[in-house]
Specification:
Distance between the termini: 20 Å
Radius of gyration: 19 Å
Strand order of the largest sheet: 1-2-3-4
Length: 177
């Protein structure tokens, strides 16, 4: 079973393609103000930290200290830049769910159904006990795939209507072409 190939251009929202591209993915929902309020300062902080690290590293520090600073800066950079890519992306052929540590993708023709599940919030995989509703993709075989679309998410899903609109949008995409 090969992974489906998808293409997600960096500036895809800026330049539209004249012909439909069946490999181009569209994000379900928008990045919310809370996510942007976290990611923009973190990105600016990482860029500043990188500039300070370069100046500090060229000033003749010991190798162990430079390695430690480089490792910490690289780790923080990867987490922040991965945060910009999080989300659920769809097109007429399939989907891709990008989480912080993993990416799941599949084709709609393989029998995925879109469902609304009652779940609890988890922070770094640890359940907090706060109940919520989340959109999940259920394959015919295998574990369910949880999307980033849930009530109370950092992307601004704070009303039942907004959750229902995104759920119906994902359900409409799930009908294979």
């Amino acid at each position: 079973m090969g992974e489906p190939s998808f293409r997600k251009p960096i500036f895809g929202a800026v330049w539209r393609y004249p012909e439909p591209d069946m490999r181009r993915l569209q994000r379900v929902g928008r990045r919310g103000l809370f996510r942007l309020a976290v990611l923009v300062p973190l990105t600016l902080g990482v860029m500043s930290l990188l500039a300070i690290s370069v100046v500090y590293a060229t000033s003749g520090i010991p190798l162990i200290e430079a390695a430690f600073i480089g490792t910490m800066t690289a780790s923080i950079s990867v987490l922040v830049f991965r945060g910009w890519m999080l989300g659920t992306f769809v097109n007429g052929n399939g989907f891709k769910i990008v989480t912080l540590l993993a990416t799941h993708s599949g084709l709609w023709r393989n029998g995925y159904s879109v469902e609304l599940r009652h779940t609890t919030w988890a922070i770094l995989g640890i359940p907090t006990g706060v109940r919520s509703r989340r959109v999940a993709l259920s394959p015919t075989r295998g574990p369910d795939l949880m999307t980033h679309i849930y009530f109370g998410s950092i992307d601004g899903v704070f009303t039942d209507e907004r959750l229902d609109v995104l759920f119906q949008l994902l359900r409409r995409w799930s009908v294979p072409e």
